[in-house]
């Protein structure tokens, strides 16, 4: 009864032109939930993933499987928007040092799949042509071993990051020796192994991928050369295998190498990785933006982020399969924990000397994401999609 009376009075007061009553503390969130399948969101996801891949020095280029969540926080007039994106990703066969765009890299076949999730905060100011990735974090896991064994008993089923078996290093050095023996003059040495698999074919078979650097030794010096190369900049990546067959003595070794963009030596008909970034109109302004950033305060323009590798889920699950999904893919990205947000200084992104502070909020939880999220997946297989 009294509630009704209050309502009536209220309506009357409003009708009479009185100021509306002060808003209580429950303000609506300033975050807009976006449609994860819209071209608006997919374009931004593409830019974010390119920036993440470009920032990394290790590992393989990540490709977008689907947009899991997308929010926009419009800033003050003229300051553009901050975006909070959660992307479900798949590892490709291109090493990040090849600088190949993720759209030109194929994802790995099922039993070699590595999948995961990235969270990113991204700033877009269309008016000023600024695209900036202040922060990201990703977590990756290989596809479940037990699922592979069930679906494909003959597929390689060891961890893709297993370095404990010395036969992987043996595979790398022996396959590179084979490559060097065919190389007209330049010689290479192993920087590090980046991927491992093993499989039983007619005997044990080992597969490795490894980065190589140029060796200061020439072919004529042969194996007696003990020079150490002054730097260890990886110039390419090789795929090597070593297999034995029971009954047949000896090892079968195969190798292919590809070189990163301009580093390619005289063409030898091998599959050379070329840096083919397609012209992207939305990014045409980027060189200018990077210039600004690097002439003013380079350190601040560098995105902060990392990619974390976890073991496959069965091993960790041990007994308790049904865990909280947050635990299975922990991706932490907290620029603030204050519900009101904190200022994020991005003045260095602007040409004019001015102070620009954005408001950054705690990363939104997926509970309140839009009904159009997650978007459709490129590879719609629950075994390679984060929960
Ligand atoms: C990114 O993840 C790492 C752990 O993997 C964590 O230490 C770091 O705080 C995270 N970054 C942010 C901004 O939350
Ligand atoms: C996503 O968008 C594409 C192209 O606009 C459309 O063909 C497709 O049906 C949409 N998928 C979903 C699940 O909404």
What are its keywords?
387 residues, alpha+beta, 4-stranded antiparallel sheet, 12 strands, 20% helix, disordered N terminus, binds 2-acetamido-2-deoxy-beta-D-glucopyranose
Secondary-structure map with pairings?
Elements: H1 2-15, E1 31-33, H2 39-55, E2 60-74, E3 81-95, E4 114-125, E5 130-142, H3 145-151, H4 166-182, E6 186-200, E7 204-218, E8 236-245, E9 248-259, H5 286-295, H6 298-301, E10 304-309, H7 313-317, H8 325-328, E11 342-345, E12 357-360
Parallel strand pairs: 5-10
Antiparallel strand pairs: 1-2, 2-3, 3-4, 4-5, 6-7, 7-8, 8-9, 11-12
Structure overview:
A hairpin with a 4-residue loop joins β4 and β5. By secondary structure, the chain is of the alpha+beta class. Helices cover 20% and strands 32% of the residues. The strands form three sheets. It has a six-stranded mixed sheet with strand order 1-2-3-4-5-10. Strands 6-7-8-9 form a four-stranded antiparallel sheet, with helices on one face. A two-stranded antiparallel sheet has the order 11-12. The protein is built from eight helices and twelve strands. It has helices at residues 2-15, 39-55, 145-151, 166-182, 286-295, 298-301, 313-317, 325-328, and strands at 31-33, 60-74, 81-95, 114-125, 130-142, 186-200, 204-218, 236-245, 248-259, 304-309, 342-345, 357-360. Mean pLDDT is 80; it is low at 1-21, 263-299 and 315-319. The structure holds 2-acetamido-2-deoxy-beta-D-glucopyranose (NAG) (2 copies). One 2-acetamido-2-deoxy-beta-D-glucopyranose binds at residues 135, 137, 306, 308, 332-335.
């Amino acid at each position: 009864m009294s509630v009704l009376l209050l309502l009536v009075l209220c309506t009357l007061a409003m009708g009479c032109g009185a100021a509306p009553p002060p808003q209580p503390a429950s303000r609506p969130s300033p975050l807009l939930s976006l449609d994860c399948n819209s071209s608006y969101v997919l374009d931004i996801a593409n830019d974010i993933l390119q920036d993440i891949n470009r920032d990394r020095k290790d590992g393989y280029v990540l490709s977008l499987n689907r947009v899991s969540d997308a929010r926009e926080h419009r800033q003050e007039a003229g300051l553009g928007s901050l975006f909070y994106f959660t992307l479900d990703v798949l590892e490709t066969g291109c090493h990040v040092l090849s600088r190949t765009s993720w759209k030109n890299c194929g994802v790995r076949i099922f039993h070699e799949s590595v999948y995961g999730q990235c969270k990113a905060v991204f700033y877009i100011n269309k008016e000023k042509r600024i695209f900036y990735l202040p922060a990201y974090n990703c977590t990756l896991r290989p596809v479940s071993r037990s699922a592979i064994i069930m679906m494909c008993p003959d597929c390689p089923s060891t961890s893709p990051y297993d370095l404990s078996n010395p036969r992987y290093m043996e595979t790398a050095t022996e396959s590179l020796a084979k490559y060097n023996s065919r190389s007209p003059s330049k010689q290479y040495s192993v920087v590090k192994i980046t991927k491992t698999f093993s499989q039983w074919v007619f005997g044990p078979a080992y597969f490795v991928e490894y980065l190589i650097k140029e060796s200061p030794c020439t072919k004529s010096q042969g194996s007696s050369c003990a020079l150490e190369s002054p730097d260890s900049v990886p110039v390419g990546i090789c795929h090597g295998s070593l297999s034995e067959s029971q009954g047949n003595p000896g090892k079968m070794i195969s190798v292919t190498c590809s070189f990163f963009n301009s580093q390619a030596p005289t063409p030898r008909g091998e599959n050379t990785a070329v840096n083919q970034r397609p012209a992207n109109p939305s990014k045409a302004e980027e060189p200018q933006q990077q210039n600004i950033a690097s002439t003013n305060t380079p350190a601040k323009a560098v995105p902060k982020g990392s990619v974390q590798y976890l073991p496959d889920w069965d091993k960790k699950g041990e007994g308790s399969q049904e865990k909280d999904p947050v635990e299975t893919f922990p991706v932490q990205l907290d620029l603030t924990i204050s519900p009101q947000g904190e200022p994020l200084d991005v003045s260095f992104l602007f040409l004019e000397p001015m102070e620009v502070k954005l408001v950054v909020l705690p990363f939104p939880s997926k509970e309140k994401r839009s009904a159009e999220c997650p978007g459709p997946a490129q590879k719609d297989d629950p075994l390679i999609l984060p929960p």
